[in-house]
Amino acid sequence: MCLTQKEGLTAMITRNLFLFLSQNKYVKGKARKWGPKLGAHSLIAGETIQEAMDTVRELNAKGLSATVDHLGEFVYTREEAEESANYCMRTLDAIAESGVDCNLSLKLTSLGLDVDRNLCRDNMMAILETAEKHGGIFVRIDMEDYSHLDATLELLHELRQTYTNVGTAVQGYLFRAEKDVDRLKGTNIRLIKGAYKESPEVVYQKQEDVDANYVKIIKRHMLNGSYAAVATHDHNVIAEIKQFAEDNGIPREQFEFQMLYGFRTDMQEEIVKEGYKMRIYVPFGEDWYGYYMRRMAERPQNIVFGVRGLLSK
Length: 313
Prior knowledge:
Layout: H1 3-22, H2 25-38, H3 49-61, E1 65-70, H4 78-98, E2 102-106, H5 117-133, E3 139-141, H6 149-159, E4 166-171, H7 177-183, E5 189-192, H8 207-223, E6 228-231, H9 235-247, E7 255-260, H10 265-273, E8 278-284, H11 289-298, H12 300-311
Parallel strand pairs: 1-2, 1-8, 2-3, 3-4, 4-5, 5-6, 6-7, 7-8
């Protein structure tokens, strides 16, 4: 086995380990005291709405837009779902009161999708009503694992019969991604590669295949005349999309780039200086553990970053 194969195997094993840990309740219970040592503070904008708004103001001052996401995992009761929905509405109130350039991102499971579909719909409608009251703040439904995909798209379709300030995400590692993009023509889509561990029956397994399909669906959505939120830290993809937009006469107002808070900050600011819109995904909240572990799993350099933080304390 050559060195690159060994590195690939190590990365796969390490990724699977961090994905397992992201769902481990015992480790999660110990995580809060480890957070600062793991470097979580550099990827999470605090635990409160006020801390999130402070972070967004700092980003806005650099010409960066934002979307905030109150982190939460494993909602099993109506009470938890309603509490999460109320928190989203309080966050929208804070965005409006602060006057910041910011959207809201959320997950349907946090609003009760696994508890009762109608409960989740009602919670989403209340959130979108609040967003409209504040001038139509855009609300992004984040895509979750494959088992929730159809339910998410079905609910989005229902919501868009009434509301225009709502969109979702499409994951490029899925075989069906191109069909979903076509189905969502005219919708503001966040285009991502995908972060969940899924069956080989539904996702590409080779990174080069994921990358190729990802770029393909971005271009297809843009050519459809739809708004594209290109969420990637890959400078090669960013350069290709810039050139594609120029070659095809696609105005910069029809797309934006997105990155995660705490990653590639120099590139974020450089893209803004070039005249493109850059939006930063800003997670916050006490339940940061699952999000942080998935970020560690995605890229080997993220893991190194976290371990260095742990050993430096």
